[in-house]
Design brief:
By secondary structure, the chain is mainly α. It contains 18 helices and no strands.
Length: about 375
C-alpha cells in the first residue's frame, strides 16, 4: 500500500525521490534482519510463534509510523515491520508444507503465494486511493488493521515443529544478541553440509535465483512508482493500478503454476519466472504511455505467477526436514541482500540519470539466474 505514496513522501518531507524510495530499502533491511531470527524461531518454537509474533510486531510498528512526524523514524519503523513480515512469511510456508505430500507442495505454496500476491496487487491501488482521499498516514493505519486480523488467524493455524536432531552450537547460545547472530553465521557451512552432495549446487542456484528475484521485486516496487509517477507524471491511482494489473495476472496463474510445479516440473516454472522479467526490464525505460507499461506489468504478473512457490518448493525438495527452517531462512537472508542493495543503487542511479536506468542495469542478473537454473539446477520433482 505504501508504494504509490513514495512521490508524496518526497514532497511532504522535503527529500529527494531517490531518498523517498529508500522506504523499500528499509523494508528489505528489516526482512534481512528478521530472516535468521525466523529460522531459529521455527526450528526451536514451531510455526505458531512465528504466525502470531510476526503480525503483532508489524501492527504495532505500523501504528507508530502513522503518527511520527519524522521520515527517518518512519524508515526505522518500516525496518521493524520488515522483520515481522519475515518471521510470519516463513512460518506460513512451514505450517503449510507439513499438511501435504511432496507432490502437492507446488499447489499449496502457489496458493499461499498467490493469495498473498492478491493482497500485493490490491494494496497499491488501495494505497493510492487512501493517499489521495486522506493522506499517506492512512496507509499505515490500514496496514496495522490488516496485521491485527492476522494475529487470531495465526493462533488458529496448524502448529508444526521439526523433528529433534543433534544440537548445533548456535542452538546452544541463548538469547538473540550479536553473539547468537555470529554463531548462526558460523554454523551455515554445517547446515549446508546436511544437504545431499548431489543437490548442493541446486541449492546454490536456488539461492542466487531468490537473490535476483528480490532484486527484481525491490526494483519494481521502488523504481516503477518513480518512473511512472515522477518521470511520466502518472497519478498515485494510476501507479497503483499498474501493480494491480500485474496482480490480476498473478492471481490467474495460481492454479496453472501449481499444476506446472507438481505435474510438469519445478524448472518449467523457475526458469521462465526469472527470464521473463529480464525482457520486461529491458523495455520499461522506453515505455512512455500507460498501455505500454500495463502490457509489461501483465508480463511480469505472469512471471510472478510462475514463481509462486516454485523456488520455495524446489528448496524444500532439497533441504533436510531437521534444518528446513534455518536453510530456508539462510536462502532468504542472502536474497534480502538484493532487496536491500537494489533500491539503494537504484535510488542513486535514478537521481544521477533517470528512474528507467536501474531496470537496464539489473536485467543481466535476471538472465544469469535463468541460465543457472536451467543448466546447473536439478529437476527435483520425483516422478
Amino acid at each position: 500500500m505504501v508504494l504509490p505514496t513514495i512521490p508524496l513522501l518526497a514532497t511532504h518531507f522535503g527529500v529527494s525521490a531517490g531518498a523517498a524510495a529508500q522506504i523499500v530499502t528499509a523494508l528489505a533491511v528489516g526482512r534481512f534482519v528478521g530472516m535468521p531470527i525466523s529460522g531459529v524461531v521455527l526450528d526451536r518454537l514451531g510455526t505458531r510463534a512465528a504466525l502470531v509474533g510476526g503480525p503483532a510486531t508489524v501492527g504495532i510498528a505500523a501504528l507508530l509510523a502513522a503518527s511520527t512526524p519524522w521520515f527517518g523514524v518512519i524508515l526505522l519503523l518500516v525496518m521493524v515491520m520488515g522483520a515481522g513480515d519475515s518471521i510470519w512469511a516463513l512460518g506460513r510456508e512451514v505450517a503449510g508444507i507439513d499438511l501435504v505430500r511432496p507432490d502437492q507442495r507446488g499447489r499449496v505454496l502457489s496458493g499461499f503465494h498467490g493469495i498473498n500476491n492478491v493482497g500485493l496487487a490490491l494494496g497499491p491501488l488501495l494505497g493510492g486511493l487512501l493517499t489521495e482521499a486522506v493522506s499517506f498516514r492512512a496507509v499505515f493505519i490500514a496496514y496495522a488493521a490488516c496485521a491485527a486480523v492476522s494475529v487470531p488467524l495465526g493462533l488458529a493455524a496448524h502448529h508444526a515443529r521439526p523433528p529433534q536432531t543433534r544440537q548445533l552450537d548456535s542452538e546452544a547460545v541463548k538469547g538473540w544478541g550479536l553473539m547468537w547472530l555470529l554463531h548462526w553465521a558460523r554454523e551455515l557451512p554445517a547446515l549446508f553440509k546436511q544437504i545431499e552432495p548431489h543437490l548442493r549446487a541446486t541449492y546454490a542456484a536456488l539461492v542466487f535465483a531468490t537473490l535476483t528475484s528480490m532484486v527484481h521485486r525491490a526494483t519494481l516496487q521502488s523504481m516503477l512508482p518513480l518512473y511512472a509517477g515522477s518521470h511520466l507524471g502518472f497519478t498515485p491511482t494510476q501507479v497503483g493500478l499498474l501493480f494491480s494489473i500485474s496482480g490480476v495476472f498473478v492471481f490467474a496463474m495460481i492454479l496453472p503454476a501449481g499444476f506446472i510445479i507438481d505435474k510438469v516440473g519445478r524448472k518449467w516454472a523457475t526458469v521462465p519466472s526469472t527470464g521473463i522479467p529480464a525482457l520486461a526490464f529491458l523495455f520499461i525505460p522506453s515505455s512512455e504511455t500507460f498501455p505500454q507499461l500495463a502490457v509489461l506489468a501483465s508480463l511480469m504478473g505472469v512471471s510472478n505467477g510462475l514463481s509462486l512457490g516454485s523456488i520455495a518448493t524446489s528448496t524444500y525438495d532439497v533441504v533436510p526436514p531437521s534444518a528446513r527452517g534455518r536453510l530456508q531462512a539462510a536462502r532468504r537472508t542472502i536474497a534480502e541482500i538484493g532487496g536491500v542493495g537494489a533500491p539503494l543503487l537504484g535510488g542513486f542511479l535514478a537521481d544521477a540519470f533517470n528512474p528507467g536506468v536501474p531496470f537496464l542495469v539489473y536485467a543481466p542478473l535476471l538472465v544469469l539466474s535463468a541460465v543457472l537454473l536451467a543448466v546447473v539446477g536439478r529437476e527435483t520433482l520425483e516422478r
